[in-house]
Amino acid sequence: MIADFLADALKRSIERTLTVMELLNAAGTLQGAGEMSSVSMLYKTWLEHNADNPVAYAIYFNHAVLLSNSGDLEGARLALSEAVRINPDFYPAYINYGHVLERMGLNGDGVSQWYTVSNRLGTVNGENVNYKLSALKQIGRLLEKSNFDAHAEDALRLSLEINANQSDVIQHWVSLRQRQCKWPVIKPWSTITRAQLLDGISTLSLDAYTDDPLLQLANAYIYARDDVGRPKATYHNGHAKIRAAAHPARRKIGYVSSDLREHAVGFLTAEIYGLHDRAKVEVFVYYCGIAANDAIHQKVKATSDHWLDLTGMSDEQAAERIAADGIEILIDLNGYTNGARTKVFAMSPAPINVNWLGYPGTLGSPYFHYIIADDFIIPPENEKYYSERVMRIPCYQPNDRSRVVAPAVPTRAEHGLPEEGTVFCCFNGVHKITHFTWARWMTILKAVPGSVLWLLEGIETTNTWLKEQAEAAGVDPARILFAGKRSNPHHLARYPLADLFLDTSPYGAHTTCSDALWMGVPVLTLAGRGFASRVCGSLITSAGLGDLVCTTPDEFVAKAIELGLDRDKREALRARLKAGRDSCVLFDTPLLVRSLEDVYARMWEEYTAGKMPRPDLTNLDVYNDIGINLDQDDVELLAVPDYEEKYRAELAKRDEFGYLPPDPRLWPVSSTTVKL
């Protein structure tokens, strides 16, 4: 009996006859029986009577883990404080101590614990390396979360100086520099090369760094291969059963997302689930994000046929549930973004995997079959940059026509904007601002007297830095203004105060573009080659303002200056937007949903006919190697007309020495070779 077992262990603890090994075994037995409160009682009793034991610090540590997992953070804090008091050189306790303090909202104290580990480990050798690296990572993560970006960057840089082979640290380091608009973003130093930094950059950061779709494809492939990896098990054997059970006309569609709440993806897709024709599709929504109960979350939940929260489920459990639901087509609304459950897709619980909306580009994986786009975002000649087969709808991005706009009409004075003069705005995240984009903006401001640039605020140090960069470019820093954070209805309401939205390149406006157009503000964009650089052009074209899509930097600057100086032309654009808003393709959500249903039907036809696409992952290691050595901070590839020729030149060098397997993507396949 468990009760007798516990009573004996407690008695021997009081008598000081229960050894540490016997204590741990007893705790394991009780945990196996689900008696967590009994384990805590045993640890507490043993420590009360055996505090002088040489390894009492380790028992305090174990007890803290138990208390932390059960939500008793104060108890865990006290236990860990005892562990480090008894043994100041027991570094794992500091790591956990920092996490507990963070969960208690004591971020500064948490960072102090991790700094203690880092500072105590002056000699970096053996196991000390892992403790120091772990502490520096946690310091960087929490300082970034607390908006101390420069200090977070320093902590991560120190971590990389100890061990440069940390792709996760490189990803955060680059992201931090982008968020601070620190140019050049990719800045090597004595022990870290440019190639190492670009080789470790995250897929999203790469989109904001360069318009290089071949490198983006290769980078995504390497992430899928190395970070997602191969699944331990798949559900391919169950696909025949799903096919056999399928309704002749009605597809079981599963949408997976962590962002179905007050988030860009939530705002964009809120209306589509309820608009699906239930004679054609049965809608399953799998949520994998943070706890939410806002209006968007509730709307999606109410308008889907089936809703399941995957939070708390392992990848294996989630895949098993999706397979059990008989899902035929599974749509990933995350891609490589926070909260994604990519490993679930890797297990193929549904016969067809689709990449749509959440991530602006290819996933470069062997298990995603299709990507949904439109004619503008992926013209036929650009399909070579994608591992998935392209399926097109009239406009790739949905919109919720019932979005809420605050009723109060704000004034320019309320937002610190000049009553006269052109207000250029850009409400994209500041991490999308490159030094090329900034230079164009400064040229525009200098050419349009009295104009200002209204940006979405970053952290205070970044705002100050951008004003300093304006001054260095010969622009009065007072002409750079920042819009504070607001709830979405109030944010939308202030859009009309601006005259023209100036897009960023190469990662342009997506949701922010459709928001601006919905509120009647024209958007000027510079379209490149990659997905992220062409979404804004798609949206503008679908709203009937295709003449605001530029193809060269010079055209962008000239057009912005022309519109900045001519109020009548700007007002004519506003009038066109207003006249076409309710009839244009961009805001025709029912059309988008019907088009999705047609696309899903075509996917299923291809699958049942045995014509499923097989992703082409040929030579992507080669393209990655070329790309990371090709991209330079002083060259904007978006503006380079012979972009592919640069790759072909490098491919030719490799082919000369026989190092290049055949690949029809850019390099012709020899008639005497066989493509495997």
Structure report:
The protein is α/β, with parallel strands linked by helices. The protein folds into three domains: 2-225, Serine Threonine Protein Phosphatase 5, Tetratricopeptide repeat (Alpha Horseshoe); 236-401 and 590-608, Rossmann fold; 413-584, Glycogen Phosphorylase B (Rossmann fold). A seven-stranded parallel beta sheet has the order 3-2-1-4-5-6-7, covered by helices on one side. A six-stranded parallel beta sheet has the order 10-9-8-11-12-13, sandwiched between helices. Helix 21 links the parallel strand 9 (452-456) and strand 10.
What does the average pLDDT come to? 90
| CATH class type of the largest domain | Mainly Alpha
How many domains, as an integer? 3
Structural class: alpha/beta
Query: What is the CATH topology classification name of the largest domain?
Result: Serine Threonine Protein Phosphatase 5, Tetratricopeptide repeat
CATH homologous superfamily assignment of the largest domain: Tetratricopeptide repeat domain
How many beta-strand elements?
13
Summarize the structure.
The chain is α/β, with parallel strands linked by helices. The protein has 29 helices and 13 strands. The protein is globular.
Write the layout of secondary structure elements.
Blueprint lengths: L1 H14 L4 H13 L3 H14 L6 H14 L3 H14 L4 H13 L3 H14 L7 H18 L3 H14 L4 H13 L14 H7 L2 H7 L3 H16 L10 H7 L5 E7 L6 H6 L2 H4 L5 E7 L7 H9 L2 E4 L5 H10 L4 E4 L9 H5 L5 E4 L14 E4 L15 E4 L30 E4 L8 H13 L4 E5 L3 H13 L7 E4 L4 H7 L5 E3 L8 H8 L4 E4 L8 H8 L6 E2 L2 H13 L1 H14 L8 H20 L11 H11 L12 H14 L20
Helix pairs in contact: 1-3, 2-3, 3-4, 4-5, 5-6, 6-7, 6-8, 7-8, 8-9, 9-10, 11-28, 13-28, 20-25, 28-29
